[in-house]
Design brief:
There is one protein chain. By secondary structure, the chain is mainly beta. The chain is built from three helices and ten strands; from the N terminus they run βαβαβββαβββββ. It has a single domain, classed as Purple Acid Phosphatase, chain A, domain 2 (4-Layer Sandwich), CATH 3.60.21.10. α1 links the parallel β1 and β2. 41% of the residues are buried.
Length: 153
């Protein structure tokens, strides 16, 4: 089984609780609104990182970060993008898992034969939404996801 850490909307804040939750992952996907490219380097100390740029990642430092990305593992095609509203139908048709961010609302939803996962926001708390990350577990062509609420003050 391969475990992939999912994180999004850090907005420049990488909490120690998020690092602890993702420490045993084989790979990490960041769904955008990174806020500081140093966060990607910190995550890369744990596992290889694939990241996409969010609507707030406009500084020149993010020019090398793509708007969408693919991560294929053990027979599962994972499509990563920041805003679900920008999902192209052709990309949706190819993916078994679609990972997004943007809304700050954690969600796991099987729909149309695909698994849609938004790990929520791991950065500054927004409104009364929880601070979360997620883990995606892939084995023999099947993916399951779990949300992890971070205990923060």
């Amino acid at each position: 089984m391969i475990t992939i850490g999912l994180i999004s909307d850090t907005h420049g804040l990488l909490r120690p609780q998020a690092l602890a939750a993702l420490h045993s992952c084989d790979a990490i996907l960041h769904g955008g609104d990174i806020g500081d490219v140093a966060i990607l380097a910190q995550l890369a100390e744990l596992a290889p990182v694939t990241a996409v740029r969010g609507n707030n990642d406009r500084a020149a430092a993010f020019d090398a970060v793509p708007e969408t990305a693919w991560y294929d593992v053990d027979g599962v095609a994972i499509h990563l993008l920041h805003d679900l509203k920008l999902l192209h139908p052709d990309e949706a048709a190819r993916a078994q898992v679609i990972v997004t961010g943007h809304s700050h609302r954690p969600r796991i939803e099987p729909r149309d034969g695909r698994l849609f996962v938004n790990p929520g926001s791991a950065g500054p708390r927004r409104f009364s939404l929880p601070v979360t990350v997620a883990k995606l577990r892939v084995a023999r062509g099947t993916a399951t996801a779990e949300l992890i609420e971070l205990r923060v003050d």
